[in-house]
Design goal:
This protein is an alpha/beta fold. Among the domains are: 98 residues, Arc Repressor Mutant, subunit A (Orthogonal Bundle), CATH 1.10.10; 105 residues, D-Maltodextrin-Binding Protein, domain 2 (3-Layer(aba) Sandwich). 45% of the residues lie in helices and 19% in strands. It has 13 helices and eleven strands. The strands form three sheets. Strands 3, 4, 5, 6, 9, 10 and 11 form a seven-stranded mixed β-sheet that branches. The chain has a two-stranded antiparallel ribbon with strand order 1-2. The radius of gyration is 24 Å and the shape is elongated. 33% of the residues are buried.
Length: 302
Amino acid sequence: MNERDPHRPGTLDLNQLRTFLAVHRTGSFTAAAQQLGLSQSTVTTQIRALEQRLHHELFQRRARGAAPLPYADELAVRLAAPLDQLARVTDERPAAASAPVHIAGPAEFLCSVVIPSLASLTADGVQLRVATGLTEPLLEELRAGRHDLVIATQRPRGRTLHAEPLFDEEFVLVAAPEWAERLSGRELPNALQDLPLVTYAEDLPIARRYWRHVFGRRLQAHAALTVPDLRGILAAVGAGMGWSVLPRYLCHAELTAGSLRLLHDPEDPPINTGYLVGRPGLPAHPDVARVRDHLMAAARNW
């Protein structure tokens, strides 16, 4: 005798699944309703019906949106690719075309380079939603469908995401002019041992890499100031609070103007490759492709 498992969902309603994915990607019942051309009450009703069918709560309702619960993240991973493919087959463009493109990456690079590069697209009607964070959590959120594109500081593992090299980030050893003058003629790196170091975190991640790559030795130093934002480090070093290692893109203007000085100019500086990462296949949302192509073209001038 075959008895149906009451906890197996059976055939699921396609409209409910589309609505679920829209809520998951936008993080909001209201935004999903606008994207789908539905009333908010319809979206709420469909999500509740899907939760009852699956015997799982999918979202934690909050005053400013809907936070996906673990089961929702797992479901979104399974649904994203087939529903996006179906949308391409059925050419469901009107709703998609009005949806924002969700892009995420390191705060400093997004604010200093990426956002200014996208100005012409927003002027042409493209809507953008920007999130910041560390690479690994952002890639997990991309897999779950919460972002369309992620700028990552390392290539993702596995085949669930597609990564393209976007830019090479060069790191430079810098200080304010007064510190550079005090160090003039002194041998590096020993001359820096007793001078104040401004860095991202207590374990000196960027400076340690520079020391290992350029000087071939372990950095023995303690931070005078830690700031978990490279823009804060730039401000501190520019104010004369010490020396640091920064990506060249972030301090290019200050180096050109002379308000910062290079303390060392090695032939082989440390380089970190950044990647533009998305889900495999052609995006269902046409503006995602526009943003991707625009960034790849703009990166040639970064």
